[in-house]
[Ribosomal protein bS18]-alanine N-acetyltransferase (Saccharothrix tamanrassetensis), 152 residues
Amino acid sequence: MSAGTVTVAPLRHEDAARCAEIERQVFPGDDPWSEHAFRAELDNGNYYVGAYVGGKLIGYAGLGLTDFESSVHTIAVAMGWQSSGIGKTLLRTLLAKADELQVPVFLEVRTDNARAISLYLAHGFEHLGLRRRYYQPSGADAYTMGRPANRD
């Protein structure tokens, strides 16, 4: 698909249905999040952004925040829009927020998701550990990765 002009903006409650739709596309074997789950993430004060083209949500990313660390909760890009740099843009948006707050960033990623692992390594993440059978119901393993706080 044509990338057009991608706008990254705060995710809205009305985007929850589209987020759930993208979840079902991208994570079909691992208990995709529901509309309710996305609304709860927003209600809990987590930092979520969406990527929009022509007003349509094509990707989203979320960062859980505490006073001393952050955690990437999710990044997803709709089928047809993958490999167009949108995931990278969303990740960089999350990292900019963590850098603004000067907190480290942690995440889990499927061990078989080579594209995502490569993206994370290119943005300063390191492997920290392995979580066996982390993703359910598939039972896929996950790497735990971390990136130190940017204290510039």
In short: The mean pLDDT is 91.
